[in-house]
C-alpha cells in the first residue's frame, strides 16, 4: 500500500508566509520535523541535494515548495475543460510514461500555491467573460493535485468554491486513493471526480509510487457513495501480453465495487499510449530499467502539437483498442459515456 505523501524536504518563499495557508503549512511541517529551507522563487530551486542527476531527480520528487502563484493567466485545457486551474505543479509519483517528465524538465519538484483566493478571483473573471456559458476548469493539468491535498486541502476548498458557483465546474483526475478528506466536501455535483485507472499489470510495472488498482477502486467506490459525478481516465492504454483479459478484469472489479447510483452519470476518457523522441530519451534516463516498449518501428507516426511528432499504435491496433474497451464499457456500464478516444 502506498502511504500518503510526506515531503522529505520543504522550501518556502518568504512571501508565502503572508498567506494563512503558507503559515499553516510551514508550522505543520515544522511539527513533523521536516527540514525547511528558504527560496527566493518557487521556480528556481538551485541547491537540491544529490550527487548526480539520477539522485537529484528522486530527491526533487519528494521535495515540496510552498510558493505564491504569480501567473494568473490560465492555459486552455481541451478537450476535457476550457481552462487549466493552477493550484500545484509536479507530482511525487514515478510513472515511467508521465508527461511531466518532459514538460517540467529540470524542475521535477512539487510546488503548491498558497494564494488560492487570487486563483479563485482569476477563475471568476474567466467565468464572467464566458457567461452565460458554463466554464469548466481542470485542476490536474500540471500535477496530481489530489495526491498532495491531504496536506494542503486546496482542492477541497476549490470543490466547495465551485460547489457554490453558478457558472463554473471543476474536474480533476488522480492516481491516488488518499481522498477521504474530500468525501464530505460540499460539491453540489459540480466537480467531476476522476480516477486514472489501468489494468493491474500496467499499474504494477509502470506506476511506482502511486496507489494500487484495488486502492483506487475502493476510493472510487467511496467517491461514488459521496454523490460526486464520477469518471475514469483509462490511460495510457498499453498493449501487452494479456491486455484484453487485464482490462476485462479491471472493468469487472469496477462494476462489482461501484454503487449503482454512481454509474448513471459515469464518464470514460480513453487515451492510448504514445511517446515522442524527447520523451523516450527522458524516460530512458530517469527509469533506465523500464520494461516500457518504446520501439518506434512498431508504431505509427503522427503529427503532434508544437510540431513534435508522436508514436501511437497502428490503425489496426487502435481499432482493436476501441472495439475491445468500447465493448467492455457497453457490457459493464451501459449508461456510461465515452467522452473521447485519443
Ligand atoms: Fe505523472 Fe500522474 Fe504518475 Fe504523477 S500520478 S507521476 S502526474 S502520471
UniProtKB/TrEMBL annotation:
<dbReference type="InterPro" id="IPR034560">
    <property type="entry name" value="SPL_Bacilli"/>
</dbReference>
<dbReference type="InterPro" id="IPR007197">
    <property type="entry name" value="rSAM"/>
</dbReference>
<dbReference type="InterPro" id="IPR023897">
    <property type="entry name" value="SPL_firmicutes"/>
</dbReference>
<dbReference type="Pfam" id="PF20903">
    <property type="entry name" value="SPL"/>
</dbReference>
<dbReference type="InterPro" id="IPR049539">
    <property type="entry name" value="SPL"/>
</dbReference>
<dbReference type="GO" id="GO:0016829">
    <property type="term" value="F:lyase activity"/>
</dbReference>
<protein>
    <submittedName>
        <fullName>Spore photoproduct lyase</fullName>
        <ecNumber>4.1.99.14</ecNumber>
    </submittedName>
</protein>
<keyword id="KW-0456">Lyase</keyword>
Amino acid at each position: 500500500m502506498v502511504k500518503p505523501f510526506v515531503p522529505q524536504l520543504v522550501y518556502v518563499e518568504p512571501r508565502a508566509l503572508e498567506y494563512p495557508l503558507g503559515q499553516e503549512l510551514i508550522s505543520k511541517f515544522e511539527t513533523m520535523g521536516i527540514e525547511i529551507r528558504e527560496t527566493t522563487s518557487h521556480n528556481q530551486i538551485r541547491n537540491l541535494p544529490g550527487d548526480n542527476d539520477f539522485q537529484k531527480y528522486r530527491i526533487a520528487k519528494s521535495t515540496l515548495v510552498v510558493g505564491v502563484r504569480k501567473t494568473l493567466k490560465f492555459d486552455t485545457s481541451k478537450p476535457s475543460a476550457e481552462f487549466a486551474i493552477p493550484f500545484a505543479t509536479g507530482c511525487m509519483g514515478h510513472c515511467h510514461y508521465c508527461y511531466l517528465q518532459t514538460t517540467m524538465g529540470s524542475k521535477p519538484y512539487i510546488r503548491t500555491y498558497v494564494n488560492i483566493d487570487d486563483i479563485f478571483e482569476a477563475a471568476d473573471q474567466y467565468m464572467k467573460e464566458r457567461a452565460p456559458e458554463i466554464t469548466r476548469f481542470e485542476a490536474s493539468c500540471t500535477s496530481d493535485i489530489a495526491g498532495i491535498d491531504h496536506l494542503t486541502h486546496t482542492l477541497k476548498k476549490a470543490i466547495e468554491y465551485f460547489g457554490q458557483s453558478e457558472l463554473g465546474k471543476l474536474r480533476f483526475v488522480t492516481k491516488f486513493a488518499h481522498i477521504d478528506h474530500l468525501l464530505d466536501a460540499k460539491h453540489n455535483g459540480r466537480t467531476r471526480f476522476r480516477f486514472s485507472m489501468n489494468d493491474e499489470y500496467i499499474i504494477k510495472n509502470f506506476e511506482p509510487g502511486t496507489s494500487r488498482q484495488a486502492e483506487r477502486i475502493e476510493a472510487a467506490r467511496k467517491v461514488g457513495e459521496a454523490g460526486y459525478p464520477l469518471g475514469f481516465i483509462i490511460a495510457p492504454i498499453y498493449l501487452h501480453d494479456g491486455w484484453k483479459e487485464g482490462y476485462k478484469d479491471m472493468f469487472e472489479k469496477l462494476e462489482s465495487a461501484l454503487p449503482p447510483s454512481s454509474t448513471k452519470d459515469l464518464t470514460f476518457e480513453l487515451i492510448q499510449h504514445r511517446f515522442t523522441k524527447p520523451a523516450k530519451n527522458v524516460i530512458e534516463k530517469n527509469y533506465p530499467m523500464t520494461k516500457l516498449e518504446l520501439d518506434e518501428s512498431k508504431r505509427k507516426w503522427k503529427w503532434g502539437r508544437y510540431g513534435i511528432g508522436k508514436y501511437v499504435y497502428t490503425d489496426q491496433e487502435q481499432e482493436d483498442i476501441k472495439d475491445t474497451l468500447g465493448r467492455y464499457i457497453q457490457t459493464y456500464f451501459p449508461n456510461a459515456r465515452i467522452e473521447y478516444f485519443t
